[in-house]
Each structure stands twice: as C-alpha cells, then as structure tokens.
Amino acid sequence: MKTKNVKSKMLHEVNNYLRSEINGTPLTLTNTSHLHGLAAGLKHGEVIIVGNAGDYLGVLNNGATIRVTQDSGNYLADNMTDGTVIVEGNAGFGAAQYCYGGTVIIHGNAGDFTATMNKGAVIIVFGNVGSEVGTYMLKGDLIVVGNAGENFANYLIRGSVYLGGEYSSLGNNTKVVPKTGEDIARLQTFFEKYGIQADPANFIKIVAASEKPFYH
Fold this sequence. Notes:
Blueprint: E1 2-5, H1 11-21, E2 27-32, E3 46-53, E4 62-68, E5 82-87, E6 103-106, E7 119-125, E8 139-144, E9 160-163, E10 174-177, H2 181-194, E11 204-208
Parallel strand pairs: 1-2, 2-3, 3-4, 4-5, 5-6, 6-7, 7-8, 8-9
Antiparallel strand pairs: 9-11, 10-11
C-alpha cells in the first residue's frame, strides 16, 4: 500500500498522481481536506482517504472504490456511475446526488438533499439525514437506518426508499406501503454485507404515489 501526504499539493497534481499510479494496490492519501474534486472520474482501483475529505470527493466515479476514514464534505460522489464510495464518518450537504449507479455507504449522518435525483445507485446512511433527502429520485435504493428531516423523498418518481427511524414529514407524491418478503430479504442482504445492526422488519417502505407527480 502506497501512502502519500498531499498537504501542500494542488488538486490537479493529486488527481494526476492517482490516475498514473492506481492499479491493484490501494493508494492512501493524507491531509486532503483542502482538495475539492479529489479522485474525480476514476475507473478502477482503490483509494483510501485518511482523515477528512473535501467537497466533491469521487465526483463522476466510474468504477473505483473510495474510502474515507473520517468525514466527507459536500456533494460526495456527485454524478457517480459505478464503483463504491464509503465514508466512515459523516457526509455533508448533497451527498450522492445525480448518481446513475454504484454504491454509496455513509456510516454516520448525511446532510440535506442527499440522494437528490438518484438514478440507480444504492445509497445507505447508517445515521440520520437532513431535509429534502431523496428529492426527485428516479431509480435505485435509498436506505436510511436513522431518522429523516422534512420533505423526505419529496416528489419521488421511482425507486425504493426505506427508513428505519422516524421522519419529520414526507414529501409530495409519496406513500408508505407494506414491505414484501423480497424487500426484507434485500435489506437483510445489504445489512449483512455492510455490517448494519438493524432489523429489516422494523423499516418502512416509501414509494411514489404516482409516476406523474407534477400532474396531481
């Protein structure tokens, strides 16, 4: 495993280093919190961020595994298409927005507008989320183990949203439906894979009331 301290480095220097050096061996970076847009557009490999990360970490990720040992900034994994991004602490505003695929795992809490316009990713938050989370979601899975703020899943279009705690309010075009055996099995698979200590039977499932939310 290679470790590089990037405290005095510019963003383009570090991203060029990642693209040129990434292979079968994980690359570890330290002192990265000043870099916004780190590990952008990677297609393979593994990057470990020791400490806190800046904004737009893993933007346009297309196959890499990116892990943060503490907190991430705003807009984590924005527009990701493939790969896995794991934050062992908290994530800021707008985590996992506009993702087309891949998996985003946040062990702590996540801010407002997390999973906005999710288009196919699996997004799991172990803690609580803020307001307007899952807004305009089009596809994929959003799983929140803790509590949600106001307008949860606002103007939901498609996809499945699961909540283990309580919401302050549900957004427009949402309804709570009974979970199926398939839902419970799916949640259990995720929980076992990512070490979530929760009972899928205690979660509620939220889906779109209509696939044409703006005409009602």
